[in-house]
Amino acid sequence: MTVISSTKNLEALSFTLVAEFDAGVERVWQIWEDPRQLERWWGPPTWPATFEDFDFQPGGKAAYYMTGPEGEKAAGWWRFTAIQAPNSLEFDDGFADDNGAPVEAMGTTHATVTLEENGGRTRMTINSSFESEEQMEKMVDMGMEEGMKEAVGQIDAILSEHARA
């Protein structure tokens, strides 16, 4: 199983997901730096992502939307704050309106991603920090935890395709 654990910490205003993959760190890094691979797993299987902009460098931004089963769209944005290939990545994350502008009422989360070699496998830890308990509870109520597990659960298939190529 890809996802090892997911932990909500209301006191720390954080959500942490840990997963392991049967691939090297540099290969797992590619699923973050390549928007075509990223959009194959970012979002639950019923809400696939499409990245319209992707400027993968510190200070760069990404714009995407996820398409639901009925064709509805939910837009989001990232602002990359730190990138240290192939081991760590940090970005601010938020919802966007139909024009791609941040939806301030939903707040901003900060994600820290680390990739570590672990006995020939790669351990990926995604830590999301929230602005407030209310924001975190709202995100959890929207299904963030299950959605992240489902999203990360798609990565093994992407990695195995490239392993066979």
Question: What features would you highlight for this structure?
Answer:
8-stranded antiparallel beta sheet, single chain, alpha+beta, 42% strand
Please provide a written account of the structure.
With 165 residues, the protein is α+β, with helices and mostly antiparallel strands. Helices cover 25% and strands 42% of the residues. It has 5 helices and 8 strands. It has an 8-stranded antiparallel β-sheet. The longest helix is centred in the C-terminal third of the chain and has 10 residues, at 155-164. The radius of gyration is 15 Å and the shape is globular. The chain starts with a strand and ends with a helix. The mean pLDDT is 94.
List the topology elements:
Layout: E1 3-9, E2 14-21, H1 25-33, H2 35-38, E3 49-54, E4 61-67, E5 73-84, E6 88-96, E7 108-118, E8 121-129, H3 133-141, H4 144-152, H5 155-164
Antiparallel strand pairs: 1-2, 2-8, 3-4, 4-5, 5-6, 6-7, 7-8
In short:
It contains 5 helices and 8 strands. The protein is an alpha+beta fold.
How confident is the prediction overall: mean pLDDT? 94
Determine the fraction of residues in helical runs and give it as a percent range: 10-25%
C-alpha Rg (nearest Å): 15 Å
Strand content: 35-45%
